[in-house]
Amino acid sequence: MTVNLEFAKSPLGGAKHGGLDKAVLIQEVPFTPGFDLRVDPDSSGFAAVSQALGLNLNPKVGTVVRNNAACIVGDELPAAGGISALCLGPDWWYLTGTADIQALLKPVQESHHISLVDVSSQRTKIEVYGPNAKDVLAHYWEQDLRDEYFPIDACSQGVLAKAPLIMWHCCENCYLLFPRASFAKHLWTALTDAAVEYL
Amino acid sequence: MSTVTFTFDGKQYSGEKGESLASALLRNGVLHFTDSSYKDRPRGVMGLWVEETNALVNVDSGAGEPLKPATTIEIVEGLVVRSAQGVGDLPDTRDNSRYDKANRHVDVLVVGAGTSGLESAKKFSDQGKSVIVMDDKPTAGGHLVYLGQPVPAELLAVLERENVTYLPRTTVQGLYDQGYSVATERRTDHLDVKVHTEMSRIRTWHIRAEHTVLATGAFQRHLVFANNDRPGIMLSHAAATYVSNGANPFKTAVVVTVDNQGYRDAIRLHKAGVHVAAVVDIRKKVSKSSKKSSRKAIEKLGIRLIKGATVIDTQANLDGLLSSVTIVDAKSDLQETIKTDLLAVSGGWTPIVHLATFIGIKPTWSAKRAAFIVKHKDSLTSTTGMLAGEFGDDDEAAIFFGPKLSTEQALVAFVDYQRDATYRDFKRAIDAGMRSIEHVKRYTAIGTAHDQGKTSGTVTMGLIGQAIGKAPDEIGSLTFRPPYISIPFAALAGRDRGLLSDPERTTPIHSWHRASGAPMEDVGQWKRPWYFPMPGESMHAAVLRECAAVREDVGVMDASTLGKIDIQGKDAGQFLDLIYTNMFSTLKVGMSRYGLMCGIDGMVFDDGVTTRISENHWLMTTTTGGAAKVLDWLEEWLQTEWPHLEVYCTSVTEQISTVAIVGPKSRELMSRLAPSLDVSNEAFAFMENKHADVAGVPARIARISFSGELAYEINVPAIYGLHIWESVMAKGADLNITPYGTETMHVLRAEKGFVIVGQETDGTQTPDDLDMNWIVSKKKDDFIGKRSFSRADTARDGRHQLVGILPDDGSYVIPEGAYIVAGADEKTAPPVKHIGYITSSYDSAALGRSFALALVANGLARKGEKIAIPMADRVVTGVITDSVFVDKENTRRDG
Fold first, then answer.
1. Closest Cα to residue B534, out of B517, B522, B549?
2. Where in chain A is the domain with CATH 3.30.70.1520?
3. pLDDT tens digits for B136-189?
4. 20 to 30 Å CA-CA from A126: which of B11, B25, B34, B625?
5. In the predicted model, what is the mean pLDDT of residues B460-472?
6. Where are the CATH 3.30.1360.120 domain residues in chain A?
7. Whether domain A13-32+122-199 has CATH 3.30.450.20
8. What pLDDT was estimated at residue A174?
9. How many angstroms from the chain centroid is the CA of residue A92?
10. The pLDDT value given to residue B707
């Protein structure tokens, strides 16, 4: 669904902190499309979904497969028309990207037991980028962010500064956070506060 | 070295920047530091570092901190401290320092940057591992720094390596299972100017290491003899270090020792210009190597050696400072008094076993070293250095903790200085039959002060052994608990203060609510507008006005926080029939139905309205606070009991923003907002859903009412929530559109007798108890809770049932939670048996009086009966009524 920018408001109004040339850049990327997909990897629907999306879904939790650029900075893939699929659970993916995901999966929905739910408004997207991006996140995030253990295109669900979110390491020194909209302001306060010693 | 000035007990002193406060005070000749906590005895500095038991101060400058050992404070310009006589206090000023927390994953954590720790760091770094080295002192090198000896350059260079992080002033406070440890880094107190103005004062590190090396080193310990606490009596290693660094208020020294460390320190004192009158060694004989390295060495310097003797008592001058010591020969009991202003005590080394014992590793007793050591190596943890018993080759010690004392001497022979616990106290514990150190500790308070027995622990073990003729390891073993040293609460809180202490969840319309000046009500983590006062309006007046506007004109409420769950799949109807007590599978597409769900115990669990969007697609709403718990509940049943059902549930609580317009004029307002929509009752019936553009945004509109009034709930993607709200306010301006908050919502629903799960229920109410038998299906084979309705208890006489209460005085609002007593005439003074309590209570604009909902035993059969409510200052009387107060016939919901 296209966003009517005349009426729409993102949780953080596209806020920006730090900068591309600074130790860290924190910015909201408003109105990022997002869908919760549920499909059993052992069902016929799974192959049908992969085929319809043109993307081989990986049923390994914590992985991302994609054919598009994920972030504004640093990524080399084309931004338009693509899809990223983050595996959040054994039968659960978070799909994001500019492709018309609903249209692509409509035929599959009619013939298979899958569920596709538009959650574009439910979460917003925050990019944390820069040489100190890891350090800022590690003030709250307890998981190991070292590249051997959380490589590019790994994703994870967890709690950062008490705000539940999805984290995705999308390219070098760049992390995408997808918090629930109601937690966005709290998370912003926490992230910008943690960045204080690096800026 | 630059000079700085600081203030101690109101007097200005100068010292060398970076030296410890203890060192600076000794440099200034301050020997009498404070008086003891309970017995007011003069005390001076004993130790070098966190083992210090006497010299505690309260810091007034900077952030302020209570009860800090003066040995651990690096002096800076403008430092202000007061001696603390066992009692800590803080300045009244607010601490505006920052505190933070950081997580770090690493291959190897090395605790301690002494030579053993540095060697370990080098070994692991050479293997390509990432290493973090933490040491609580300002500089690396451990004892070498104290001894004034150079730290090998190749070891210090390890700290500069790419794969090594070195954190000085960082105390590992706790070690836990699986390589998890917590440390505090003191980052700014030692700085005159912060590196970054926003730099955190203390950082709490949470480290996860694949392997942890404990290279924590050792403390020296004291001996227990009469008057062993006078200023001028110090641990020998501390005394020699201070004096060697030029902080020397002493002329003469006597060294009393059980090991060869006393000899080394005697030599250091001698070299620093102190006259060493004697070295008193309890050992008659020592090994050949000790003889060579220690005894010969002091003989060469002309220092007198007294073998097989120890100190039994000391004397003081008029200022309370040490003036002489009494030596006793262990065999002959012959005594000799020697004049001296310093008594340097070497009671043996106590390896710092704390971290090892935190994870359950038991120290073992080394008779040769007279010390508890931890020699340990497994994949997670290993020990090295003095902790592992790797002392110097000739570091042999006598197992000796103090001479035999008379009763009078025992009264002034201190085992734990800070607690003023004496050998006499200790002896009383032994005489009372205590044998375990845990019992002795609790009987005497030994080891319970700020230092948690860092020096007194091993001494006490030894004394128990000496008293009952056993070796220290036969008594038990030392165990400690985190933290290693005291931590300010602020450091534990880190950033979790003020706004960041708990998330405030806000709806897309929150900015409007805030701007309107509405006070907020906390509903879980959500901030919801409570009421919207006009300038100068009281809450009571605002709520009455909002209620009246809804019943007469039109009100608007932000219902975005309601829990919402998208349910898809061909078995969804069947699934909902099992979850809810009432029937859903028969619901027509486009219609909504109110449902009640129970736990397996048959008690009401949650409620809400569920809508059939299409044949296999449903949208459930839950209570605001119940959203997460209901989704978990649904997933649990799907995953564990009914995996054969083709159903997927997805949370959409925050995808959808809901704006409810409520009141007789809501139909007019709805038609203005969605001109394309036929809003007539015939075309758009109660509980029906329609899709239409509202203020230019595609929306689902539902005719659902939580007040009994005609109402429309406008559901849009959350990014449009604020736009819809603002459009409602604009289009309804001439209709007296009135925003209302949670309080008015509560009043309106209570007037209709609608329950709130969690307010009218406490987990012990069945649908019958809520007078909602109508919602329990008699047709369905099964649903969650059904079986429990046939339990004798759910049908028993005397269950609490939902009723209304009208107080006789209609101007009085009964407090919620008030207890109800039967009959207006019965005695209401205790003891009196209550029959129920008030669950909701309000003043009603519609009724023009107060009313309440209550749970009353057998309440449904008691309507019309008089009740009384004993309050502190009065007895409120009233009558039990039906729980529906307004529009019993539901005539208003269609407008």
1. B517
2. 33-119
3. 999 999 999 988 889 999 999 999 999 999 999 999 999 999 999 999 999 999
4. B625
5. 90
6. 13-32+122-199
7. no
8. 94
9. 14
10. 94
> Among partner residues A36, A113, A181, which is closest to B654 by beta-carbon distance?
A181
The pTM of the full predicted model, rounded to 2 decimals, is: 0.94
Amino acid at B264: R
Name every chain B residue with its beta carbon within 8 A of the beta carbon of A186: 499-500, 503-505
**B 357-416 residues with CB below 8 A of A?**
none
Answer yes or no: is the ipTM higher than 0.95.
yes
Of the options 3.30.70.600, 3.10.180.10, 3.30.200.20, 3.30.70.1520, the CATH number for the domain spanning A33-119: 3.30.70.1520
Give the phi and the psi of residue B64 in degrees, each rounded to 5: 75, 140
Separation in Å, CA A20 to CA A70, A132, A146, B478: 16, 12, 22, 54
Q: What is the pLDDT of residue B512?
A: 98
**Poorest-pLDDT segment among A19-33, A63-77, B299-313, B835-849:** A63-77
CA distance A106 to B656: 21
Burial state string for B789-804 with b = 16 or more CB within 10 A and e = fewer than 16:
beeeebeeeebbbbbb
Q: Specify the 3-state DSSP secondary structure of B638.
A: helix
Residue B147 DSSP SS3: helix
Q: What is the pLDDT confidence band of residue A80, given thresholds at 50, 70 and 90?
A: low
* B731-752 pLDDT tens trace: 999 999 999 999 999 999 999 9
Complete domains list, chain B, with CATH: 3-83 (3.10.20.440), 97-222+349-398+482-501 (3.50.50.60), 225-346 (3.50.50.60), 400-470 (1.10.10), 527-560+656-740 (3.30.1360.120), 563-651 (3.30.70.1400), 798-881 (2.40.30.110)
Residue % of chain A over a pLDDT of 90: 89
Which residue matches tokens 């994703």?
A155
Q: Of B364, B362, B363, B356, nearest to B380 (Cα)?
A: B356
Whether B514 contacts chain A with CB within 8 A: no
Cα-flanking dihedrals φ and ψ of residue B658, to 5°?
A: -120, 125
What's the burial of B870, exposed, middle or buried (CB within 10 Å: 0-12/13-18/19+)? middle
Q: Name A164's bridge partners.
A: A159
Structure tokens at B512: 């409007």
Taking CB atoms within 8 Å and a gap of at least 24, the contacts of A45-51 are: A45/A108, A45/A112, A45/A113, A45/A114, A48/A108, A48/A111, A48/A112, A49/A105, A49/A108, A49/A112, A49/A114
- The whole-angstrom separation of Cα B724 and Cα B509 is 9
Residue in A31, A139, A182 nearest the CB of B719:
A31
Tell me the β-bridge partners of B591: B688
What are residue B31's phi and psi, to 5 degrees?
-100, -45
Chain A residue numbers touching B201 (CB-CB < 8 A): none
Whole-number Å distance between alpha carbons of B842 and B816: 9
Amino acid at B560: S
Q: Find out whether B214 and B392 touch, Cβ atoms under 8 Å.
A: no
- Please write the tens of the pLDDT for every residue from B494-537: 999 999 999 999 999 999 999 999 999 999 999 999 999 999 99
Task: Report residue B573 CA to chain centroid gap.
Answer: 45
Distance CA B343, CA B116 (A): 30
Tally Cβ neighbours within 10 Å of residue B487.
17
A193 contacts on B by Cβ (under 8 Å): 495, 500
Flag whether residue B182 sits within 8 Å of chain A, measured between CB atoms: no
Q: Which of B104, B102, B21, B172 is nearest to B487 (CA)?
A: B172
| Beta bridge partners of residue B593, listed in sequence order | B610
